[in-house]
Design goal:
By secondary structure, the protein is of the alpha+beta class. It is built from 17 helices and 22 strands. The protein has helices at residues 6-20, 23-30, 50-53, 90-97, 105-110, 125-130, 133-143, 158-167, 184-194, 208-221, 254-263, 276-286, 341-360, 396-405, 442-452, 472-475, 487-505; strands at 38-43, 78-84, 112-116, 149-153, 201-205, 227-232, 241-245, 269-270, 288-292, 298-300, 302-308, 314-325, 331-337, 365-375, 382-389, 409-411, 416-419, 422-423, 425-433, 456-457, 462-467, 477-484. The strands form four sheets. Strands 10, 11, 12, 13, 14, 15, 19, 20, 21 and 22 form a ten-stranded antiparallel β-sheet that branches. It has a five-stranded antiparallel β-sheet with strand order 5-9-6-7-8, sandwiched between helices. Strands 3-2-1-4 form a four-stranded parallel β-sheet, with helices on both faces. Helix 1 packs across helix 8 and helix 10 crosses helix 11.
Amino acid sequence: MVTLSPSAHDEARQRFGALQSRLVDVWEAVVSGRPWDHTSVIVPSLSFHPKELAKIAGAPFYEERLLFTLMRLRDPRARVIYLSSQPIHPEIVDYYLQHLIGVPASHARGRLKMLCAYDASSRPLTEKILERPRLVERIRQAIGDPGRGYLTCFNSTRLERALAVELGIPLNGLDPELLDLGSKSGCRRLFREAGVDLPLGFEDLTGDGEIIDSLVELSHQRPGLRTAVIKLDESFAGAGNALYRFPNPLPEAPEPRRAAITAALGSLEWSAEEAYEVFLRTLGEMGGIVEEYLEAEEVRSPSVQMRIEPDGRLQMVSTHDQVLGGTTGQTYQGCRFPADDEYRQLIQDEATKVGRLLRDRGVISRFAIDFVVLRDGGGPWRAAAIEINLRMGGTTPPFLALQFLTGGDLDPATGQFNSQGHAKYYYATDSLKSPSYKGLLPEDFIDILTLHGLHFRPSTETGVLFHMIGALSEFGKVGVTCIGNSRAEADELFRRTAEILDCETGSAAAETTPAAGLFESRPGRIE
């Protein structure tokens, strides 16, 4: 494990600040649209708390999700260095390069360097790289002129800052000193400051007594509240969440009420398998929150993705309706683009308020804000902000895929992506899975795609793009982005894709919810 002394951290911060001052010029040249000789270093590390990372099946293969960044090779003078924990199968790389428009795959491959740490452990990739000085030196040599290079990562922590300093290139990402803004506690404070509605709740909790105090106070401030949510500050994809059910009826007297609320903690419903004692230890390390669980006749869970450029410009990137499931209905399973017309502008406006504050605090690069939107009796939708992800997320790869495959752009006023005169829609998931998919090698999977024409068609800019292909053999799961010229077409592409894979592998049905009914409003149980 890489550790730094306090003095080393101070030095790293100073060196990092000097590097970041170069990012504005580098980024302006990259996005100018003119060919520019530069190197993009991609480190798709999931740099999260080890306990939370262990909850993701096949976590190392999530490193393949950023292969969409190979789109940068469209610039004939750009070079890309892509890092991974284990080698990525050559056919998977070829699969992406063949989708580059206007650039021969052989030319792009000559400007691509794939490097790996040959380390299958569940630790973050960035940590593995820093432990291997010869690998770091190999990356330096491949970069060439550090004044024409920059680092892109899935999320930004002290590990990524240390790697940027070691390589001598700026990081197109968050300064780790600002990470608290994206914790569950930090974002609640930011929402209040921005004047955005959020669930009633309490933050900065570190122990059992504080959880109980918060639940008791919630029961007083929200008489009749049925459910609350307990969340770890640094969890992701809903894996660190638990649902709490209030006893019914609740005693009126203070001591009996507290005793009843405490006793009900023994029946928490976990998003991922967990023991309360282990949860409390993690809570003590990272903190957490308790908040009310919002319920209404109709409840949906959209998100807004934005980006703050190095020069401070705030840009709308996309909106999605998130697909949540699992045992508590809070685990991220996929998304649909764009978010529903009925509330898309509402959440864009609310997200912009938060984005301006983040910009003022010095945040750069991508981030996402998750909302719950609710209504009763067919009335107007109202929105409550739930959390901020100061990093890439599950909705980032599919939108990158849309950009990768088309020449279109998002209209920030409407939130609609248009290309060749058509509005574009997609359904995407990281987890199209079935036990019968296990054992499929990348070459087997490519054969199936070729046989059945499961590919993207440039002529119509519709079709299917896959990711995390390497996870199939061991875990029986693959990511998919189904792009259509209508919601119905995107849904049908997903249905057909799952049907073909099931037929080819002898599966009764893939273990994912059919796309057709995924996005209807559901009563109550969406967070």
